[in-house]
What we know:
The protein is of the alpha/beta class and 382 residues long. 27% of the residues lie in helices and 34% in strands.
Amino acid sequence: xxxxxxxxxxxxxxxxxxxxxxxxxxxxxxxxxxxxxxxxxxxxxxxxxxxxxxxxxxxxxxxxxxxxxxxxxxxxxxxxxxxxxxxxxxxxxxxxxxxxxxxxxxxxxxxxxxxxxxxxxxxxxxxxxxxxxxxxxxxxxxxxxxxxxxxxxxxxxxxxxxxxxxxxxxxxxxxxxxxxxxxxxxxxxxxxxxxxxxxxxxxxxxxxxxxxxxxxxxxxxxxxxxxxxxxxxxxxxxxxxxxxxxxxxxxxxxxxxxxxxxxxxxxxxxxxxxxxxxxxxxxxxxxxxxxxxxxxxxxxxxxxxxxxxxxxxxxxxxxxxxxxxxxxxxxxxxxxxxxxxxxxxxxxxxxxxxxxxxxxxxxxxxxxxxxxxxxxxxxxxx
Length: 382
């Protein structure tokens, strides 16, 4: 009994004299970065950090929906990316914590210089995750970082963070993560693409005042870690048939010179088959898509709709391919598919021409459409 008491007193004494984690600041005494912006001007790197007060954006009874949420943006400059990021802390007043960063946005000047420099610097911050979303932009970085969501919700409720545009009916491009981009940049065939984020000022109003909202406006493409070109969403329309992650793809189908129906497709699959035709490498494509009719304007058969839909899909793919190769861009990853299936042939072709895709490199495009149902319209097969 005495031994037990002695041990208890000894343990209590030890607890009293132990030092706590005094080197760690209190949670409320830290500045939490949620997004990073990087620019390059006049030979200097410029870094921005978006800082949010989590007590203002947490989902609790004390938060009023629609109440304006303040956004703080810090700025730092330096001869390197790391020095620019460090410079943000110089006047931050609080210790900056980077573990909540969910997105990084870069200007075109940075994309043309080097994406890997940015990734290398940010990745050295141990708190930053590998799977943060990455974007390029034609806008000024502060304009992007202060943008709020609908109903004055915080920036965390925008597509820049939530990637919800992947389920939008007009989606063409899926958001990508930094680790995916870096992996693609290191692949032979260089198929990497970074989405461009912009502000749409035409679609939304608060009362009668125009309110800008985020939109993915296109994609940047790369060669040897540097940007070689940009394509708009309109020009990239054909790549949506290669994005199996897209859940809603509406397609207008015409017949007899006027709109006949609108078909909504989901999760398409594209297979690429490099083949030899008269000694030349061609790429045959096969697309499988399931859909259903959401609007029917003409009394046409389902087989006719499927044929017209296949023609429309084939036209979108061909148009995107033709526009892309003018900038030496390979949005369908044709060169990568050749590298995977026949690396010797890939090396032979790229030895004389690093890009080697031409107008006639696109071979047969086979479209397999399955209309699961016609909604409230019965439709006929023949």
